[in-house]
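Hello Y.,

Per our agreement to keep a running log of every chain we model this quarter, I'm adding this entry. I've kept the format consistent with earlier entries: sequence first, then predicted structure.
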Amino acid sequence: MKILLVDDHAIVRAGLRRLLAVAADAEIIEAATGRQSMVLAKAISLDLIILDLNLPELGGIELIARLRQISPAPILVLSMHSESLYVTRALDAGAQGYVSKNAAPEELLTAIRRVSAGGRYVEQEIAQALVLQPISQPVSLAQLAPRDLEILRHLAAGKSLSEIADLLGLGYKTVANNCSLIKTKLGVTRTADLLRLALAAGVS
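Predicted structure for the entry above:
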């Protein structure tokens, strides 16, 4: 597995390199800046991108959006910030996972396995805070059809849209359209809010 590690602190990169080389049997490519990571993401076929949000030259949120346009590799944020504002912005920008640098190594490895397999993962403590955070307007899951609830449950379990399509015997576009309709029914527009609802509605 090829992982691009984007962090401007050499000590952090060195520690993660040792952890991932042993525990995840991964080949690590390093970048110290956002612009450097974009060059590498274009040139190399990657399985996963792990990036910090505090980067020189190009901020992490903007970098996530740009990387989504040039590489199919899923993105896992590893940041010192655990506040919901950073998490929701990262998820909305296109990240598939979010873990703080205070997380245990075992949870980071779980996130790496989940996200590299095409699923989603938010650090458990952060996910609980997102679930408890009030959404701007009241919503009711009672208005959802059985298929909608099933899709939400699979989202809560970290499944990707393609995996959900396979599990339900549906086309990818059908599931993607259903997700858009679910957002409309629940009065939310952001993927992060839908993920929070999914975590609240089902068991991961």
